[in-house]
Amino acid sequence: MPCTTILAGKNATYDGSTFMARNEDSGGGEFTAKKFIVVQPQDQPRHYKSVISKVEIDLPDNPMRYTAVPNALKNEGIWGEAGINDANVAMTATETITSNERVLGADPLVKGGIGEEDLLTITLPYIKSAREGVRRLGMLHEKYGTYEMNGVGFQDVNEVWWFETVGGHGWMARRVPDDAYVVMPNQLGIDRLDFEDAYGKQENFMCSEGLQNFVLKNHLDLSMDGTFDPRAAFGSHADSDHVYNTPRAWFMLRALNPHTYVWDGPDADYTPESDDLPWCLVPEKKLTPEDVKYVLSGHFQGTPYDPYAKYGDLSQCGKYRPIGINRNNFVALTQIRPYKPEEIRSIQWMAMGSNVFNAFVPFYTNVDKTPAYLSGTGKKVDTNNFYWANRLIGALADHSWNMCASHIERYQLAVQRQGHELVNRYDAAYEKGEGRDDIHDFLQGANQAIADMARKETDSVLDKVLYESSNEMRNRFNRSDA
C-alpha cells in the first residue's frame, strides 16, 4: 500500500512521549473503508491463515488485547495496520517500500509468504517492548518469507525502532535516535547499518543473521570508500522515486527543519528529487501531534507544487505526489506518555479519509471497546460513521477549495483543541482517584465523550462544505443572472 510514516524519539517531542504515525493509503482507483477497534484475547486466532497468500501460522496461546484499524470489509483479510497492546507497545504495519533487481534476484520474494495483511495480527499481541517486536517479526520474516517489501515501526515508552525487509527473507532495523525524527515515503530509507553493533550489543541496529554475508556474496556493497550504505545496496533510485517518493520526504523535512538547510531555489542543499535526503534529523523545535498531522496532510503547501495553488507560477502544480491525497484511508499517531500512570499512558490519535480535510482525535487504548462512531464502519455510505462522514467532507471540499478551506481549518482546530481538553480532563480525574474500580469502563466513557465531540464538529463542517459546494454547482442559476 502507498503510505507515509513519521517516527520521533522521546527527546524530540513536546512532552517526552515517543511518537509513531503513518498514513494508510489505498492503491490507485481504490478507497478502502476502515474502522478502529479493540481485539480481545479470545477473538485473536490461534491458527492464522492469510486471505491473500494463504500462508498458515500457528500463533502463541497467550495474546494480549490490542487496538487495530482493520478493513471494514474482510474480502482481502484483516489489514490491522496500527495499534497499541496491553503492555503499552505500539506497532505500525506497513510502509510499502522499494528494492532493486540485484537484491530481489538474490533473494526472491515469496509468493506464499507474509505481508501487510498479516503483520499486525501475528506480531503485536505477543510483544512487550519495541525490541521484542523487531525480533519477533524478524523471526517470522526469516521463517515464512514475504511477498512484498515492507517497513514496520515498533514503539514503547522509551524507544522507537524501524524495521525494513531486504528481499524475501532478509531484514534490518535501526533505533530512532532519542533526539531525532524519521520520515519515510514508500522507499527503503535506512541510510546507515552498523553490522558490528547489529551482531553484538544491538544498541542501535539489528538485522537478520546472514545479512552481511548476503551482501558480500551478492556484491551489493556499492561504496567507494568502504562505508556501507544500505540505501544504495538494498534500495531503489528510479525516476519514479523522484516523482512519487523523495518529494514527500523533502516536504516533511523542509517543514520541520526550515532553517537547517536550504530547501528551495537553484542553490538548495536538497531538492524534492534528492536521493540523499537524511533518514533522520534533530528537529528545530520539539514535535507536537499537530506537527505530525500537518506534515502527514501535506499537499506541498507553500511550494510551487501545491495542487491547490491559486497565485504565482502554476506550471508546476501537481508535479509531485502529495502526502495528503484522495486515497488516504486514515492516519494514526500512537503516543506513549512516560509521565502518566501505565493505565492511561497510551493514546491513539485517529483521523479518517483524506488528510487534507480531516481532523485528529485522541483515544485511550486501555479499553475493551471503541465508540461505535469509529468501530461501526460498513460498506454503506453513512454519515453516522466517522470514516464515511470524512470521505464526504473531503470529496465536497476539494471541489470548492477556496470556499471551504477556512471551514476545514476551523474544524481541525476545534476538534484537536477539544481533544486535548478532554484528555487533560480525564487524565486529571483518574489521577484524583476516579475510575480506579473499573479503568476500562472509565476510559470507554472518556472515549465516548471524545467521539461525541468529534461527531458534533464533523456533522457541522459537513453541513458547511455541502452548502458551499452546492453553491458552486455548474448548473447554478439565479433570476438576477438573466
Q: Could you characterize what this model shows?
A:
It is a single chain. With 482 residues, the chain is of the alpha+beta class. The protein is built from 13 helices and 17 strands. Strand 16 (346-352) and strand 17 form a beta hairpin. Helix 11 runs parallel beside helix 13 (439-471) and helix 12 (401-431) runs antiparallel to helix 13 (439-471). The chain is globular and about 80 Å long. The termini are far apart.
Quick synopsis:
The chain has helices at 101-106, 119-123, 130-144, 195-198, 211-217, 230-234, 241-244, 246-256, 289-296, 372-375, 386-399, 401-431, 439-471, and strands at 3-8, 18-25, 37-39, 47-49, 56-58, 66-68, 82-84, 90-96, 150-155, 160-166, 170-175, 181-184, 205-207, 280-281, 328-336, 346-352, 361-364.
- The CATH C-level class name of the largest domain: Alpha Beta
Rg measurement, Å: 22 Å
* Lateral strand order in the biggest sheet: 14-12-1-2-15-16-17
Separation of termini?
51 Å
How many strands appear in the DSSP assignment?
A: 17
- Number of H/I helices: 13
User: What name does the CATH topology of the largest domain carry?
Assistant: Penicillin V Acylase, Chain A
- At CATH level 2, the architecture of the largest domain is 4-Layer Sandwich
Class computed from helices, strands and strand pairing: alpha+beta
Output mean pLDDT. Answer: 97
Q: Can you write the helix and strand succession as a string?
A: EEEEEEEEHHHEEEEHEHHHHEHEEEHHHH
Major sheet description: 7 strands, antiparallel
Which spans of ≥5 residues are poorly predicted at pLDDT below 50?
A: none
Strand percentage: 15-25%
Please tell me what the overall shape is.
Answer: globular
- Tell me the helix content: 25-40%
